[in-house]
Amino acid sequence: MNKRIPEDLIERAYQGKSTKEDGLLLLEVHLFELFRFADELRSLTAGDTVTYVVNRNINFTSRCVGTCGFCAFRTNNGRVLSIEEIMEKVREAEVAKATEVCIQGGLLPDVGMDFYQGIVEAIKAEFPEMHIHAFSPMEVYHASRISGIKVNEALSRLKRSGLDTMPGTAAEILSDRVRKIICPSKLRTAEWIEVVTQAHAAGIPTNATMMYGHVETPEERIKHILTIREIQKETGGITEFVPLPFMPYNNTIGEKMIREGRYSTPGLEDLKIYAISRILLHEYVDNIQASWIKLGKKLSQFALHCGANDLGGTLMEESISRLAGASNGESISVEELEWMIYGAGRIPKERTTLYRGAHKLASRNPGRITGCGASE
Ligand code: SF4
């Protein structure tokens, strides 16, 4: 924990050429040196602006045929919101000046693409300017199978219906060893990568997440981050990276950990992951988002000094993390978010989902997607 960061590692990081070995070595270096280096790269990439988006979460059902052992959200018989009920929530979001609705739900056994396209089309018909950030790679994969079409056709249909971007959730840890333990019926690593890269090819940018702190090894975390970097090198379609600490309550994986005396990751470990993400993704993924809902407000404020430059959304209605034990509220006001950012010595700025005009971004890495804003 007291090693210095070697000069050659620093040089590779500046060039966007960090290796897996560099990532592992960064786990051993002096914490303040690690945080300082990540903060320096954050400053180079994003300046002193810290962004957030005014958005609303809409989870249209908790009913799910999935079997993820970390999930506290799934039910066998949850209700499915009607289109009109979803629209009511979008109308409330519009009144609250939200620019984005983030829509996800459980995997329903019997609905295909028409259901997902119907949601997007209804929103765009009434609110053409509202940014629709919806449907995880798992949801798209599942719906395409039910409809008997290929994933790229499913993505093209969603794009034509008006889908703007997708959450890069369902990534968990991109290791099939881990996935077999925590989410055996979820799409495999290669399938997640395929859905995300095909989304980018269809002109649908995504973010990318990593849910850590359960059964994965440090090496599997580092490999996950480097996999995200490889995708971004190829497509340029990733808007931000969001490390998400595992929430251990009300789910079988967490209950086992608690019996063994483990309660997810300590805060310092969370901050190391933010810092290492910033360093390994430098030159490729410009935005590292600290999740106030998972980290809590004070730790996410501190993460702004460890590589993070974004605090995510106001959410209005959060239930997935709350059910798994997060106790940081279901929403946050713009005033409080800005207070947190000023309190960290930074300058708050509301952004769009695609960070348009947020700060100088990765024009050096345009990737294959042009005009989508992901690399603006
Ligand atoms: S994480 Fe998603 S897919 Fe898995 S069980 Fe929960 S709701 Fe279903």
Question: How would you explain this protein's 3D organization?
Answer:
With 376 residues, the protein is α/β, with parallel strands linked by helices. It has a single domain (7-350), classed as TIM Barrel, CATH 3.20.20.70. 44% of the residues lie in helices and 11% in strands. The protein is built from 16 helices and eight strands. A three-stranded parallel beta sheet has the order 7-1-8, covered by helices on one side. The chain has a three-stranded parallel beta sheet with strand order 2-3-4, covered by helices on one side. A two-stranded parallel sheet has the order 5-6. Strand 5, helix 10 and strand 6 (238-245) form a beta-alpha-beta unit. Helix 3 packs across helix 12 (267-280), helix 5 (113-126) packs parallel to helix 7 and helix 6 crosses helix 7 (151-161). The longest helix has 18 residues, at 218-235. It is globular, with a radius of gyration of 19 Å. The two termini are 37 Å apart. Residues 361-376 have low confidence and may be disordered. The structure holds iron/sulfur cluster. Iron/sulfur cluster binds at residues 64, 66, 68, 71, 73-74, 106-107, 138.
